[in-house]
Write a structure and sequence with these properties.
Elements: E1 3-4, E2 23-24, E3 30-33, E4 37-38, H1 51-68, E5 76-83, H2 89-99, E6 105-110, E7 120-128
Parallel strand pairs: 5-6
Antiparallel strand pairs: 1-2, 3-7, 4-7, 5-7
Helix pairs in contact: 1-2
GO molecular function: deaminase activity
Organism: Lachancea thermotolerans (strain ATCC 56472 / CBS 6340 / NRRL Y-8284) (Yeast)
Protein name: KLTH0C11880p
Length: 131
Amino acid sequence: MVRKLKWEEVGVSNGPSFLSPGCVSSKNCDLLFTSGCVGNDPITGEYPEDVESQARNAMENMKRVLESASSNFDYVLKALLFISDPSYASAVNKVYQEFFPGRPSRSCIVVSFPDPKLKFEMECVAEVPAN
């Protein structure tokens, strides 16, 4: 099982409550390294206009990837988020907290996507628990 580091363990008295500074996996486990999931609708392929909807779609898409590998958000060790504008961070954080109550370690990077409709992408590393 994944052990979440606490901020106090790394000498920080008041770190961000929505993420962990790190996660430790067990010795005998399988790890899933996902490709990026974007916020398109899985049926139509269309991107919603707003970043919150794109983030929600991307996390639902990621949920399907995790479940297909017999894992879930509780086993995510590290999430990597990409946003196309720094002003999107608060909307993305709101959605992130709904899907990641376990608060895995996380990074969020501002990037320029090749498709201007794309506002959000995510990938993660997750433990696949033994059956």
